[in-house]
Design a protein that fits this description.
Layout lengths: L2 E3 L37 E2 L11 E5 L2 E5 L6 E6 L9 E6 L12 E8 L2 E9 L6 E8 L10 E5 L8 E9 L2 E8 L8 E11 L2 E2 L4 E4 L12 E11 L2 E8 L8 E8 L11 E3 L13 E10 L6 E8 L11 E9 L5 E2 L10 E2 L5
Parallel strand pairs: 13-16
Antiparallel strand pairs: 1-19, 2-24, 3-4, 4-5, 5-6, 7-8, 8-9, 9-10, 11-12, 12-13, 13-14, 13-15, 16-17, 17-18, 18-19, 20-21, 21-22, 22-23
Organism: Spirosoma endbachense
GO molecular function: hydrolase activity, hydrolyzing O-glycosyl compounds
Pfam families: Glyco_hydro_43 (PF04616)
């Protein structure tokens, strides 16, 4: 894999009406039809659910907690076995009020644990405008399926521009926040990846740094040109920022990656190197189109690394509810970089994650 130093491009961005839209919003959200995953002793097959765009997973106290975009609410899955996600406990932990600033187009929720409290980040339209901002809920309960979720409000990010797909990294005593956004609050044609430091889970305490912008042809498929869905991955002394590139309406949607030393100043653009090729992408021969918006997990015994991502089973399905969550194990190269391989066919029987 060749890596080249990243140089920012100052380009005008896209309008809210043509941004990389996840799924149509409904008042009640989208209820995915769960797959009847075969409960064998050692094997499973993808997809984990028949629908579930932008899947997110976190492991805590013996359980995996999973979220994905529904469009109209925040839904949480709780399971001891990721391969049996379709049979897990499920609860709508928050629904938007009938009126107010965060009532529709609720995208890409993520659950995080910071200082013994739970936080859910999500993007939503700020009424009466048509542009998105990041929002956050807090819960003091040990189990996020219980307790009370309190809306802390809009995440206070630098410059207060259009923002979606926020995620957190806790590293070396610092809290970092990455998201996809616009350079200016205007109608434009680019989504970038930004990074800042946080003084608490809802307030930034640094200017934003634009760490990635669509510059290669494989990042510019569809309109607008998109970098979105940033996710952190750490290994040994490296920090990786994996993101989704090109518009979600295209079959070419794929994952790109930036890398930095964990000891480096992550708020210095020179610390990051960007891949000039996708690190994981569509596999038409095996029924994986529009591959992206992923998350990662490590098995409880720390033996296996897995990627959770969405893909369409047929070409031309775009940003729809046909995007289903899939997972597969990945490995590490001798240089310390991840090797994600390629999406495995839905017909392939996979060994369950270690510990199941």
């Amino acid at each position: 894999m060749k890596y080249t130093a990243f140089f920012s491009l100052l380009i005008v961005l896209s309008s809210a009406t043509i941004a990389c839209k996840k799924i149509p919003s409904t008042s009640s959200g989208v209820t995915p039809t769960q797959t009847a995953t075969q409960d064998t002793s050692t094997r499973f097959q993808n997809p984990l659910l028949t629908s579930g765009p932008d899947p997110w997973v976190i492991y805590q106290d013996g359980y995996y907690y999973v979220m994905h975009t529904t469009g109209g609410d925040l839904r949480l899955y709780k399971t001891k076995k990721m391969s049996l996600l379709g049979q897990s406990q499920t609860s709508v932990v928050w629904s938007p009020p009938a009126t107010g600033p965060v009532t529709r187009d609720i995208w890409a929720p993520e659950l995080h644990r910071v200082n013994n409290r739970w936080y859910i980040y999500y993007a939503a339209v700020v009424a009466p405008s048509t542009t998105h901002r990041m929002w956050v809920l807090e819960n003091e309960a040990t189990d996020p399926m219980t307790g009370t979720w309190i809306l802390k409000g809009q995440v206070q990010l630098p410059d207060n521009r259009w923002a979606i797909d926020g995620t957190l990294l806790q590293l070396n005593g610092k809290l970092y926040y990455a998201w996809s956004g616009w350079e200016n609050e205007i109608r434009n044609n680019i989504q970038h990846i930004y990074l800042c430091t946080m003084k608490n889970p809802w307030t930034a305490d640094s200017p934003r740094l634009r760490v990635s912008t669509p510059e290669y042809d494989w990042e510019k498929q569809g309109m607008p040109s998109v970098n979105e869905g940033p996710e952190f991955l750490t290994h040994d002394n490296k920090v990786f920022l994996v993101y989704s590139a090109s518009h979600c309406s295209t079959d070419s949607y794929a994952l790109g990656m930036l890398a930095a030393d964990a000891s480096a100043d992550l708020m210095n653009l020179a610390s990051w190197q960007k891949s000039d090729q996708p690190v994981f992408g569509p596999n038409a021969a095996d029924g994986a189109y529009g591959v992206g918006h992923n998350s990662f997990f490590i098995t409880p015994d720390n033996q296996e690394n897995w990627i959770l991502y969405h893909a369409n089973p047929q070409p031309g399905q775009g940003c729809s509810n046909n995007r289903s969550p899939r997972m597969q194990r990945f490995t590490w190269r001798t240089n310390g970089y991840p090797d994600f391989g390629k999406p495995v066919p839905l017909t392939t029987s996979l060994k369950r994650p270690s510990g199941e």
